[in-house]
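Work Package 3 (structural annotation) set out to generate three-dimensional models for the target panel prioritized at the project kickoff. During this period the team completed the workflow that converts sequence records into discrete structure tokens, so that structures can be stored uniformly alongside our sequence database. As a representative example, we reproduce one entry of 167 residues exactly as it appears in the project archive.
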Amino acid sequence: MGRINQFFKCITARLTDEDKDFISEYLSGDECKLIYNLPVYDIKHCINVARDIKLSESEKSMAAIGLDYNEVIKSAILHDIGKSYKPLNPIDKSILVLLSKFTKGKIKKFEDKSRKIYIYFNHGKEGYEMIKGNDYSEEFLKIIRDHHDYRTTNKWLEVIRKYDDRN
């Protein structure tokens, strides 16, 4: 049922003035340009992840586990920035989610033959490459790169993944 809900959120996604204000609160002008290269449904997803963190976690709870609250929110907004490399429409995404599930991830071996399959599995790596020359800490960059690589884990990734999975 969660995937069906995600699909409908995707096809009905709209950016409000509040969404734009939220983005501007956490991102610089150059970062805003990056996020606005994504399709509206991907931007809305990133905003939803970040807002969910903001509503559910406090600055104090983040500090208690050694995390900078504003950096976590910023990384949540930017976590899917690599999808701008090759945007996937809602139908493409749905098909890839199902194919990945039914093939137990074996569809990944075709990533060199399809940019859609490639970006589905590698948007974190592409996002990392897009922003690595900027003034981000290596830890921040690794969050963008590794948010779907479950072989890597830390407290920051756990927070991003928890709210990414919800949205």
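The CA atoms of residues 60 and 69 lie 8 Å apart.
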